[in-house]
Design goal:
Bound molecules: S-adenosylmethionine
Shape: globular
Largest sheet: 8 strands, mixed
Number of domains: 1
Helix content: 25-40%
Number of strands: 8
CATH superfamily: Vaccinia Virus protein VP39
CATH class: Alpha Beta
CATH architecture: 3-Layer(aba) Sandwich
Number of helices: 6
Distance between the termini: 35 Å
Order of helices and strands: HHEHEHEEHEEHEE
Length: about 240
């Protein structure tokens, strides 16, 4: 498949997407508010992912959209970074988390009442407005069969278009890519194919491929440095 091919239609993955949502709902019924409901193996691994995602980003005064936010737990890592880098700033960043699973959003609203959350299938209906930073942790791992790579590139393109400063996402995959099996719910991407695609959108890219086997993080920056967003996140964004 060409690195630039992204003529993707959500309808092609609708059925598999709905199965993915049901899998999360089922896990939530079993585990409740736990990293296990998000299908993470350990809490430590989840925290490492969050740290890798925001390590290279200046979050001060920025609007942040977290796509596939789960319970919004990346907020803890964002707050730690803010405390370290901007200890005297009263409202160091603005955050909106979106997730397609209503149960996750309901928990997130209770856990982090200072921040905004909204239920949404982001890749079907992205917001029309921009955010300074878009984060996406774990929402690009599902196996949508033949459409998977097309879906992921399209998702990257959509998110990158909608950020003013940086997009940071992670993904299951490696180079050489591990063997994918048809029945697996996770699809391992060829990480170099994804990197090449990101480089076709911007030359300012950080590729983090060292922290876990079969997973990588990419941070993509807009070419020009931006001023901090003057708009405010409201509930409808
Ligand atoms: C592995 S979990 C990670 C949750 C959270 N980002 C974290 O790091 O703990 C992936 C999340 O992405 C959400 N997700 C997947 N596709 C999505 C979409 N199209 N729109 C919104 N959320 C989505 C799932 O519901 C799930 O909560």
């Amino acid at each position: 498949m060409s690195a630039l091919k992204t003529n993707f239609s959500y309808n092609k993955i609708k059925e598999q997407f709905e199965k993915m949502v049901l899998r999360y709902k089922r896990k939530f019924r079993i585990y409740g508010w736990s990293y296990k409901a998000l299908r993470w193996k350990t809490e430590e691994a989840m925290i490492i992912r969050h740290q890798e995602l925001i390590k290279d980003i200046d979050i001060s005064g920025k609007t942040i959209l977290d796509v596939g936010c789960g319970f919004g737990d990346i907020i803890k890592t964002l707050e730690q970074k803010a405390k370290k880098e901007m200890p005297t700033t009263p409202r160091p960043f603005q955050y909106l988390g979106v997730d397609v699973v209503t149960e996750f959003i309901n928990v997130a609203k209770k856990k982090y009442p200072k921040y905004k959350f909204s239920k949404r299938n982001y890749f079907e209906k992205p917001f029309k407005r921009n955010f300074d930073i878009i984060l996406c942790c774990g929402a690009l791992n599902s196996n949508f069969g033949e459409e998977t790579m097309c879906f992921r590139k399209n998702a990257i393109k959509t998110m990158f278009k909608r950020c003013n400063y940086a997009l940071s996402f992670n993904m299951a995959g490696s180079y050489p890519p591990p063997q994918n099996t048809q029945n697996s719910t996770i699809y391992f991407a060829n990480s170099l194919e994804i990197l090449k695609y990101c480089l076709s959108l911007t030359r300012k890219v950080i590729f983090r491929h060292h922290y876990r086997r079969n997973e990588f993080t990419i941070v993509m920056f807009k070419q020009k440095n931006i001023q901090t967003s003057e708009t405010t996140i409201n509930k409808t964004a």
